């Protein structure tokens, strides 16, 4: 597969693993909503306010995850226009639950960004969050030059770096049969880069920092 604007074809196993990952991320907050509702129904519990807080915060987390993955994995991300404000807010909310913060200054967007650029960025952001096991900062930048366009996401924090299995999944020779719910996101992200006519690069940039970038034809 090559060329900008090409169709992305994935193995059924990849779709199943992405669904498994999504469900895994949602089980925790949805289960907490359930627990909060059950506690509110227990008259002997005596802490209705705490139970309501638990249920509310967990429902907000589940909603944030669903909205994020709707754009990152679904068709909606391909159709998103040039207004990156809502995407920025969605990414910031998503990172809140991974103990990281977003550094994505508002500003003009480079001309010529292809359809699917926001989808690409969200997947890079999720991959950066995976690379910050102790939390940290995820920085986002978009630039254009003579060589074309570049989408860049930096993960900065203690022990920043991709797990070995995730690093293997973003390689061009990654085998579908070796993927798991833990590393399928990296594989999917590098496929998105290919669909846009680029290549995903992941490289350490000093101690405690990782650079993820996709260069696109201008």
CATH homologous superfamily heading: Histidine kinase-like ATPase, C-terminal domain
Write the element-wise H/E pattern from the N-terminal end onward.
Answer: HHHHEHEEHHEE
- The first-to-last residue Cα distance is 19 Å
General form = globular
The figure for the number of domains is 1
Profile the largest sheet: 5 strands, mixed
Fraction of residues in H or I helices: 40-55%
Kindly provide the radius of gyration, computed on alpha-carbon positions and rounded to a whole number of angstroms. Answer: 19 Å
- By CATH, the architecture is named 2-Layer Sandwich
**CATH-defined fold name:** Heat Shock Protein 90
Low-pLDDT residue intervals, each spanning 5 or more residues:
1-6
Number of distinct helices: 7
Q: Strand tally, please? A: 5
- Write out the strand line-up for the largest beta sheet, numbering strands in chain order: 1-2-3-5-4
User: Which CATH class?
Assistant: Alpha Beta
Average pLDDT number:
88
């Amino acid at each position: 597969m090559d060329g900008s604007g090409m169709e992305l074809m994935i193995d059924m196993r990849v779709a199943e693993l992405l669904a498994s990952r999504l469900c895994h991320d949602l089980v925790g907050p949805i289960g907490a909503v359930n627990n909060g509702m059950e506690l509110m129904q227990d008259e002997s519990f005596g802490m209705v306010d705490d139970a309501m807080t638990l249920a509310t915060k967990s429902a907000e987390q589940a909603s944030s995850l669903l909205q994020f993955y709707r754009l990152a994995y679904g068709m909606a991300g391909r159709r998103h226009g040039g207004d990156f404000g809502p995407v920025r807010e969605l990414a910031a909310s998503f990172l809140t639950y991974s103990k990281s913060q977003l550094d994505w200054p508002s500003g003009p967007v480079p001309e010529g960004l292809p359809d699917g650029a926001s989808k690409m960025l969200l997947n890079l952001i999720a991959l950066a969050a995976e690379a910050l096991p102790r939390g940290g900062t995820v920085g986002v930048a978009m630039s254009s030059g003579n060589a074309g366009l570049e989408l860049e996401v930096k993960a900065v924090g203690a022990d920043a770096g991709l797990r070995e299995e995730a690093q293997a999944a973003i390689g061009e020779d990654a085998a579908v049969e070796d993927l798991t719910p833990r590393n399928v996101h990296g594989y999917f992200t590098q496929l998105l880069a290919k669909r846009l006519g680029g290549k995903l690069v992941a490289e350490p940039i000093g101690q405690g920092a990782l650079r993820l970038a996709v260069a696109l034809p201008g």
